[in-house]
Each structure stands twice: as C-alpha cells, then as structure tokens.
Automatic annotation (TrEMBL):
Principal EC category: transferase
Name of the protein in question: DNA polymerase III subunit delta
Keyword Nucleotidyltransferase: yes
Domain (DNA polymerase III delta N-terminal) ranges: 20-137
Domain of life: Bacteria
GO biological process: DNA-templated DNA replication
UniProt source species: Clostridium beijerinckii (Clostridium MP)
Length: 344
C-alpha cells in the first residue's frame, strides 16, 4: 500500500502499473488521482474510445473482464475505471463477494494493454484500509493507493492547482487563509473556489472576499474564542461568544465544544511532553498539518495545570446550564470571566 504522495511521484516518473485500487473518504480527491493515469496513457482525441467507466455498484465480473480484454483503438493503452467498487469493502453481500473472488483470480492475467483502476469510499474516519483483509490479498497483484489527507505544503499546492485549472491565480497568503476556512474535501473546495472566482471576476482575490463567501465553521469559532481566553482578552471573548450564540442559540453544544477543545489541548500538552511530534498528531486526530501546528501553538499558551482547571470550569458551567431558571447567557459570560482566575 502506498499513500497519494508516493503514487503521484511514481506517475510523474512514468512508473505506471497494470492495476490500481484507490480508497479514501474524498471521492473528488480520488478522481483527481485517477485522472493522472488517464492523461498519461490516453491521447485526448481517443479518450472516448480508450477510456471505459463502469459503475461498480451495478456491474458484473463479466462486464469488467470484457472491458479489460477489448483491445485499445489507435493507441497502446486503454484504461478501465470501475468506480464505487463496493465489492472491495471488507463486508459485502454474496454478489459482491462473488465479483471480488472472480476479480482476485483474474487480475494476475490482465492484458498488458489494459490499466484497470477500481476505487471505493471508506465509511468514516475510523475505517482504515490496512484493516481490510480483501485489500491485503488483492494488493499482491494490484497497487493499493490510500488517499489520505495531504501534508500542508502538498495540500496548499493541490488547492492552488484547483484555482489554476479554473484560470485564476490566488496569492499565497489568501490561499493559506482559504484552506483554513474551507472544509478539507475537494468536492467542497472546487465548489467554493468557483463561488470565489465568480464573485471576484477579473480582480485579485482578497481575504475579505473569502470572509464574505465562506462562513466560519463552529471549530473556527471555538478556536478564536480559546485564543482570546489565552490572551486574556475577555471583553472580546464575550463579544465573540455573543456572536456564536446569535448564529446558534444552543448553549449546551457551545460549552461542549469549548470543553472538548480544552481537552484536546490538554492531551496535546501531555503528548508533547512525552516527545510526540506534528506527524503523530496528524495521525492521531486525522487533521492536516497546518491545523495541528495551530493547535500546538495554542497549547503552548497554557500550562498543564491551567488546562486542567479550564476543563473543570467548563464541566461546572455545563452542570449549571442543565438547571432550570437560570440566565444561560449570564452563565456563559461568568465562565469567560472566571478563566481570568485560573493561575499558571
């Protein structure tokens, strides 16, 4: 099994295998990876003839095999893409198991002129391809490409390419800001980029444009609030809290989010003292590098004792919010004011 970065390097070198299986959470990211092979193997004018796409959720082994066995037209290679190949998932129904078993027997005899590509989507963040026994077996004949989240520099470069493909340049500062604001999913990234490009027209993209078009996530709000607590800017923290409550009048969800954030900072603090690095946090929390770096920087603004006390404050506030007949907004403000009393 290889990750996306290794796969990309191999394709750039021209080391293209006869078969691949892609898996990950981001389908648009997987499709971009597959397009690298297609462009390397098929001339634009023969794309309709030498590229075959098959719906993996509504197919049979015979359909896949027949597509692979057909000779390419006016070219050396043809590419067969079986998208959403759910029969590759660890648990499938009897028909999916049959297709998998037939494919497993067939792939060692793939024609030299065919590149067979199959992909399936992972169920959630906890679903890991290295736990899939089917991949362990079929991976002896086909290359498994795990499309996990990219590291910061690679991620920024790929998002920058999204804008370039759409004929628009974006400054590095604005690019970093865009990446921080948008959800790390290339389907969403491309749609948000389209909105931004249409809005800005011929002029350059500015941070203000990004603020107008891409609303802050609850995670961003929580991070900003904790940052104000760290710098003891409680007046601004109260104003920020009011803005959050205005957007979502759900006190319990907000206090829970703040508590979880402090808990994560506490965990990072402990792990840092035990020698953990950025790469470890990227793996542990399934977050991109720049987000982990921001969390580490924020963690350094607190002592271990402070974070422990802040978590207790949140728990106490949550308990009070569950009581009836209290002013919930006032309790939230008390929480912020009480953070000033937490000593190092």
């Amino acid at each position: 099994m290889i990750n996306y970065e290794v796969y990309e390097q191999e394709i750039e070198k021209g080391n293209i295998k006869n078969g691949y299986i892609f898996c990950g959470l981001d389908e648009e990211f997987i499709k971009d990876g597959i397009s690298l092979i297609i462009k390397k193997n098929i001339a634009e004018e023969f794309m309709d003839l030498n590229l075959i796409r098959i719906d993996g959720m509504n197919t049979s082994f015979d359909a896949i095999m027949n597509a692979c066995e057909t000779m390419p037209f006016m070219g050396e290679k043809k590419v067969v893409v079986v998208y959403r190949s759910n029969f590759l998932q660890d648990k499938t129904d009897s028909s999916g198991t049959k297709i998998y078993n037939d494919i497993k027997s067939y792939i060692s005899n793939l024609p030299p002129y065919t590149v067979l590509i199959m992909y399936y989507l992972l169920n959630d963040k906890r679903d890991r391809p290295n736990k899939n026994k089917k991949l362990a077996t079929i991976g002896k004949s086909l290359t498994i490409v795990y499309c996990d989240k990219l590291k910061r520099d690679k991620y920024l470069k790929k998002v920058s390419e999204v804008f370039k493909e759409k004929g628009k340049q974006i400054g590095r500062t604005e690019l970093s800001y865009f990446c921080e604001k948008v959800y790390n999913n290339f389907d969403i990234i491309k749609r948000e980029a389209d909105k931004l490009i249409s809005y800005c027209g011929e002029r350059e993209i500015k941070k203000e444009d990004i603020d107008i078009l891409i609303s802050k996530s609850s995670e961003d709000d929580t991070f900003d609030l904790v940052e104000l607590i760290a710098t003891k800017k409680i007046d601004k923290a109260i104003d920020t809290m009011k803005e959050i409550l205005y957007k979502s009048d759900q006190h319990m969800l907000i206090i829970s989010a703040i508590q979880k954030h402090f808990l994560r900072l506490y965990e990072i603090k402990i792990k840092l003292s035990n020698g953990k690095k950025v790469d470890d946090f990227m793996s542990d929390y399934r977050l991109p590098q720049f987000v982990c770096e921001k969390l580490i920087m924020q963690t350094n603004k607190f002592t271990e004792k402070q974070l422990s006390e802040l978590i207790k404050l949140c728990v106490n506030t949550e308990t009070k919010l569950k009581s009836t007949g209290i002013d919930k907004n006032m309790e939230m403000e008390f929480l912020l004011i009480n953070t000033l009393t937490v000593k190092k």
